[in-house]
Amino acid sequence: MAAQRAGQRKTSRYVVPVAVAGIAAATIGLVPALAASGDPDLPEITAQQLIEKIAASDTQTLSGTFKVSTDLGLPALDGLLGGLAGGADSGSGEGSADPSAQLSKLVSGTHTLKIAVDGPERQKLTLLDGAEQYSLVHDGDEVWAYDSASNQVFHEKGAGAEKGVPAPDEELPASPKALADEVLKAAGDTTSITVDGTANVAGRDAYRLVVAPKQQGSTVESVTIAVDAATGTPLKFTLASTSGGKPVVDAGFTKVDFGRPAASEFAFTVPEGAKVTEGDEAGKDGPEDLEKEFGKSPEELEKAFGDFGLGGGDANGPEVIGEGWTTIAAFDSGAPAPKTEDVPKEAQGFMDALGDRVSGKFGSGTVFKTKIVNALMTDDGKVYVGAVTPQALVDAANSAK
């Protein structure tokens, strides 16, 4: 169980909408289309040419402000995600500067961030929520993070990338470019990619690249990427669901400058009185922490969840059903669904808010729903997940029988 918790923390670090985009964009084809007329007035360009422009972009320096709005159609996640991540809002009231706890907040709500980039060696991201700030600074082989609400500092030096800290060449979480790269990294014939006019983003002229599935059954309606006409840098990313309403992810710059940020942007001094936690000390929850968090001992939690969805199943990886946007991953968790009476109240309330009971040839189970990614967990421990409708998951489970 302890090893599983450690693994969860590694994979949950920097949990951001990038994960959603990566699952949703299974396979993408390159379908050329001429740019429509719009404002601003820019030269016509094909989708293929615009994608090549993005690929050729070599933006090494920039600073600016961008907003990230995420609406997965979920109940409030801050408390639960904080707890699972080793977390800031775990009920202790002490807070945390650990990035795995703080940046999980980007999975829901609207947030304003400031960013500064000076090549692969220096990046800074500041999360502005009300009067409080959270800053994450990467400078050479060091990472510093500061949470003003709790006056705590997180520090990691050396091979931090192996523990979840971004490697020097990684994009900062939730940036429009990182999101766009997730969508454009694969190719196939299941997708339409067109240029749909132009836009003005953060005072910059941009083309609108629209990516949409051709297949029926996907929960993705479209992905729209605003691409800076001069540099090829993605300035805005919007992921829309077939369920309508607000975009699932809407991340874009409101201000941007491609000049080199001042060196002082990346300097970090530990604030007076702040508690400093080294990276190899973060997230070491003991049995008493888990019991306080969920009201159950580690042994009871082990019994309730076992390996359910946490690395059980076929060592060769999940079975892939379908293709493109309607791809479904299926695997055997190796454990039946936990009984209601064995599940902590906090987790059970979350599961009830997300899940609908379903049945079919496969037996019975629960479909857990978001506006993009849905998962069917059968009572005998089989799991089917994809950016597809609940019915598509049920059909896949029925076909497996």
Give an account of the 3D structure.
The chain has 401 residues and is an alpha+beta fold. The protein has 2 domains: 2-266, outer membrane lipoprotein receptor (LolB), chain A (Clam); 296-400, TATA-Binding Protein, CATH 3.30.310. Helices cover 21% and strands 32% of the residues. The protein contains 10 helices and 18 strands. The strands form 2 sheets. Strands 7-8-9-10-11-1-2-3-4-5-6-12 form a 12-stranded mixed β-sheet, covered by helices on one side. α2 packs parallel to α6 (176-184). The longest helix is centred in the first third of the chain and has 11 residues, at 2-12.
Q: TL;DR?
A:
By secondary structure, the protein is α+β, with helices and mostly antiparallel strands. Helix content is 21%, strand content 32%.
Q: What topology emerges from the helices and strands here?
A:
Layout: H1 2-12, H2 17-24, H3 47-56, E1 61-70, H4 78-84, H5 99-102, E2 109-118, E3 122-129, E4 132-139, E5 142-147, E6 152-157, H6 176-184, E7 191-201, E8 204-213, E9 220-228, E10 234-241, E11 249-257, E12 275-278, H7 287-294, H8 298-305, E13 319-321, E14 328-332, H9 345-354, E15 355-360, E16 363-368, E17 374-378, E18 382-386, H10 390-400
Parallel strand pairs: 6-12
Antiparallel strand pairs: 1-2, 1-11, 2-3, 3-4, 4-5, 5-6, 7-8, 8-9, 9-10, 10-11, 13-14, 14-18, 15-16, 16-17, 17-18
Helix pairs in contact: 2-6
- Percentage of residues in helical conformation: 10-25%
- Helix- and strand-based class? alpha+beta
Describe the sheet with the most strands: 12 strands, mixed
Give the beta-strand count: 18
